[in-house]
């Protein structure tokens, strides 16, 4: 079983180049982690071919507390939740996305797309979550996709503020 979601984030008045530059800025990624009040985080942005214009690999490794997570899930994740987000940007408007909880069964895979129109940019994240645990896998898939949407909403809020500066 798996669960798929599609979430859109809007950046009015921005260009794809501006949104991509924001996503390539380590300080922006760290600001998103701080806004989410993660316990610890490490952000690595590696340009492809020495220039982010050729694409980039982004790794956001963070540790969160399981605050607000149902008790059945807390037994599985423990006192801390490590989340490893990896993005493979092959161009300035398209990336592959993988989100994993290291040492725990399950992951999310999908894509990130930036699309520009006359009014700004829409960033679309489409992922499928799969948790291979009998009986509770479906509940956990719903839980982790809900957590991802919450994180994307935080990223969008920080991103709108970032672009307005």
Word description of this protein:
- The model has no long low-confidence stretch (mean pLDDT 90).
- 32% of the residues lie in helices and 41% in strands.
- It has a single domain, classed as 2-Layer Sandwich (Alpha-D-Glucose-1,6-Bisphosphate, Chain A, domain 4), CATH 3.30.530.
- Strand 2 and strand 3 form a beta hairpin.
- The chain has 165 residues and is an alpha+beta fold.
Helix content: 25-40%
Number of helices: 4
Number of strands: 7
Structural class: alpha+beta
Largest sheet: number of strands, sense, barrel closure: 7 strands, antiparallel
CATH topology: Alpha-D-Glucose-1,6-Bisphosphate, Chain A, domain 4
CATH H-level homologous superfamily name: START domain
H/E series: EHHEEHEEEEH
- Model regions low in confidence, pLDDT < 50 over at least 5 residues: none
Radius of gyration: 16 Å
Supply the CATH architecture. 2-Layer Sandwich
Query: Taking all residues together, what is the mean pLDDT?
Result: 90
């Amino acid at each position: 079983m798996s669960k798929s979601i599609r979430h859109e984030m809007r950046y009015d008045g921005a260009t794809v180049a501006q949104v991509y530059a924001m996503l390539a800025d380590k300080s922006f990624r760290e600001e998103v982690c701080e806004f989410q009040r993660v316990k610890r985080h490490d952000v690595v942005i590696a340009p492809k071919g020495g220039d982010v214009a050729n694409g980039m690999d982004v790794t956001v490794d963070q540790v969160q507390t399981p605050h607000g997570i149902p008790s059945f899930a807390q037994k599985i994740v423990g006192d801390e939740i490590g989340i490893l987000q990896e993005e493979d940007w092959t161009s300035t408007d398209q990336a592959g996305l993988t989100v994993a909880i290291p040492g725990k069964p399950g992951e999310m895979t999908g894509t990130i797309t930036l699309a520009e129109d006359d009014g700004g940019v829409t960033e679309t994240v489409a992922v499928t979550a799969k948790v291979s645990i009998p009986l509770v896998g479906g509940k956990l898939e719903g839980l982790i996709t809900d957590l991802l949407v919450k994180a994307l909403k935080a990223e969008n809020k920080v991103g709108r503020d970032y672009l307005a500066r």
